[in-house]
Every structure is written in structure tokens, then in C-alpha cells.
Amino acid sequence: MFPILQIGGLAIQVPGLLILLGIWLGLHTAERGAGRHGVPAETLYNLAFNAIIAAVVGARLAYAGLHLDAFIRSPLGLFSLRPELLDPLGGLAAGGLAFYIAVRRRSLDPGRVLDALTPLVAMLLIAIPVAHLAAGTGYGAPTELPWAVDVWGASRHPIQVYEILAATGIFAWFQYGPRIRNQTRISGVGFLNFLVISAAARVFLEAFRGDGLLIGPGFRLAQVAGWAIAAAGLAGLWALGRRAHEAVSE
Amino acid sequence: MPYSPDKPSFFPAAGLTLILCAVWIFLSSGAERAAAGELPPAPQAGFPAPDFTLQTIEGETITLSDLAGRPVLVNLWASWCAPCRAEMPALQRTYERFKDSGFVVLAVNVTAQDSREAVEAFVSTHELTFPILLDPEGVVTSLYENRALPSSYFIRPDGVVSEVVIGGPMAEVLIVTRIETLFTIGAP
Questions:
Q1: Pick from A236, A186, A234, A179: which is nearest to A37 by CA?
Q2: What is the SS3 assignment for B18?
Q3: Does residue B32 carry a pLDDT above 70?
Q4: B149: closest CA among B65, B87, B104, B90?
Q5: pTM of the predicted model, to two decimals?
Q6: Disulfide-capable partner of A122 in A96, A171, B34, B44 (CB 3.0 to 4.6 Å)?
Q7: Model confidence band, residue A183 (pLDDT cutoffs 50, 70, 90)
């Protein structure tokens, strides 16, 4: 674990730094491949950058909205640099909305843009477990396996390592797999495939996590959410295929 | 593509994926809940907070586990640490606001890296009224695997760590929202 990088009097939050690095690397990779999807690199950069800014602002405003009394007493808290004062769902909604509006305004094909942005999301899915590893969060379930690591008073699955390996494999497959590189006939298929495979990987790996939220008779929330995302992604793929078939028929 | 919607193999592949995922969710359910009651003390969200006993600068002995039933903020700090100094006024204000509801701040000074004189001068200057604990042997620093100052551990009334905030200064609104959370969950 390496949660803080102390440089003189400056304490840098390593997990946050790793996430930022992941976004930067992902955006850089996405820009380089944007032309393959028919999206200008500059347009892609602007779309992603605006969505990220909107996500951060939205996450802070959503958090403030959920704790209105506290922020009315301390309004300067709105400008705090603490990531703990962000609401992830609010950020996702605001970033998604900003992205949708920008894509519509520029009359872009959302499927092609999402295909082009897949490396950004894929890189982020690598950066998140690396950040967990640095912070000691998102730890694994207890195990007696020979490769277990001692974390928080028990021998545990090195779940962050599993997640990094899985996310890296998915990233490499979608970025460099020869069949993937040539598949651009139906826009959106690449992104939805990535979504389904990443969600299925989450369903599988979540079983080895030790800090997952449970619902109902002991089901892991992340697994149920992963299954729902995979199902939605497959439904989206079916809809894209049907639309393409109808277009060919006409 | 693994799933090509324009090919006949799409539906079998999609169906198989969803069925396998559902079976795996069912097979892997429940185990975590069974293990949850056996968690060892650790300075990590979701674990019982490691217990300790220290003396305040006034000589009073305080044991963390004696505060069961009350939300506690354990703050590790040093008088030479700039962000520690910066967040102390906010800690004092929130303590004043919530102390009558049972909220406790334990400001553990890492005395092994500080001096008692500097601590006393700092407490006097800032008129801090919550307990200032001295840790000359580094017991809490070791128990809480402390790597940076300040570090704050929000502990629920049932003794479980709710959240760990490493580094500072914490915004007052962050402290307030976390304390409000402590009051709403974890009551024994």
C-alpha cells in the first residue's frame, strides 16, 4: 500500500493521482485511434474533457444537494479539493448528460464516438484497481491459496491484481486484437462488446472481493449490477444488429 | 467481435453468458456474509477499530472501547504538521456542535515525533476543548498503520470504522457530513 506520496510538506493522494494518470493515458490512446472510427481526434478530446468537467461539477453539486444544511453553513466546502465530497452517481449522470448533449449538438454518430472512447473507459478500469492497491481498499476475500497476501489481519485474495490483469487483458484485446481492429461496420458494437465483457468480468471477480455490499439473501450488489449491465449491453447489441439488418433490407 | 449481432451465433452466445453469470452469482453468494462476523480489528472501513488506551495532556486515561455507543473521530496529528494545524479549528467547531449528542473527538498526538511543550502551546493557542491524547511510544501510530499526517478515522457507535480520511486538511463540511452519517448508522 502506498496511499500518500510525501514530497516535503506536500502530501499527494496517490490513488487520485493514479486515476488522473489513467484518464490521461486513456484519453491519449483514444485520441490516437479516433480516426479509425471516423471521429476527429480534437472533437473526441473536447467531448471527453467537457464530460469529465461536467462529471466533477455534477458530482460536487449532487453531494452538496444531498447535504444541503452542511453546505449552507460552510458554502466554501463547494470548492474543497477533497474527493470524499463527490457523489459518484451524480457525477456519472452529469457527465453522461453533458456527453449526450454535446454529441447531439455536433450531429455525431453516438455509436462511433463511444467506440472511439472505449480505450479511455478501458484504461480507467485498469487505473481503478491500481488505485485500490495503493490505498489498501477494495481488498480481497480471505483465502488459503498459496498466492494469498496478508491484508487487514488475514490472508486474502490479491483481488486488485486479478482486476488489473483482467482489465489489462480486456484493454489489450479491444485495442490490439486484429479482429477487433477491423470491426467497424456497425457503429457502437465495439463499445457494447467491451461493456458486456467488462461487466461479465466484474460478475466473476467480485466473488473474490472481501468488501462488497450485499443485498437480499447474500447476493453481491456489484455482481447483480454487473449482470444487469451485461444484459443491457446484449440487448443494445441485438437492437443495433436489428437496425443494421433493416437498413440492408431497405 | 465476441458478440456479433449480425451473426446467427449471437443469441446462443448472449444467452449462455447471462446464464453462466447468473449461476456464478448464485454459487458465490452468502460466503462473505458468513465471514463478516470474524473480522479482526484493522484501521480500515468495515473493520472493528483497533482498541487503545492513552493518557490526555491533563493525565486522564482514555480507552477507545469505553466509548462504545458513541460516534468517535480519532485524529492523528502533530503540532509541526501544517495540514493538521489547518483542520484543527474545523474539528473544534464540529466538536462544539455535536458533543452534546455524544460525539467524541480523540486527537491523538504522535508524541514520538513531537514534543509535549509544543502540543500544550498549540492546544492553548487554539483553545481546543476535546481530549488531546499523547502517544509517546507510537502505539496508535503502529496499530493504525499510520503513513501520513493528519489521518482521521470515523468510528461508528458499534465500534466499526466507517471511513478513513488520509491527509488534510479536511473541509469542515466533510467532517460534518461524516459525523451525521455516524449518527444514522452503526448504533448498537
A1: A186
A2: helix
A3: no
A4: B87
A5: 0.86
A6: A171
A7: low
Mutate to test the interface with B, among A155, A203, A224 (most CBs of B within 10 A): A203
User: What is d(CA A242, CA A231) in angstroms, rounded to the nearest whole number?
Assistant: 16
- CA distance between the termini of chain A: 59
Nearest CA in chain A to B40: A153
The dihedral sign for the CA sequence B113, B116, B120, B121: negative
CA angle at B74 for the pair B68 and B77, rounded to the nearest 5°? 160
Please report the pLDDT score of residue A178 as a whole number: 63
Question: Which chain B residue's Cα is nearest to A203?
Answer: B21
Listed residue (B107, B80, B127, B121) closest to B175, CA to CA:
B107
B137–chain A nearest CA distance, Å = 22
Closest CA to B113 of B72, B90, B81: B81
Measure the CA–CA gap between B116 and B135, rounded to whole angstroms: 10
- Check: CB of residue A156 under 8 Å from CB of residue A210: yes
* pLDDT-derived band at A245, boundaries 50, 70, 90: confident
- Closest-CA residue of chain B to A71: B173
Q: A–B: how many Cβ contacts below 8 A?
A: 155
Q: How far is CA A30 from CA A190, A199, B150, B156, in A?
A: 13, 21, 38, 43
Contact A189, A223 (CB under 8 A): no
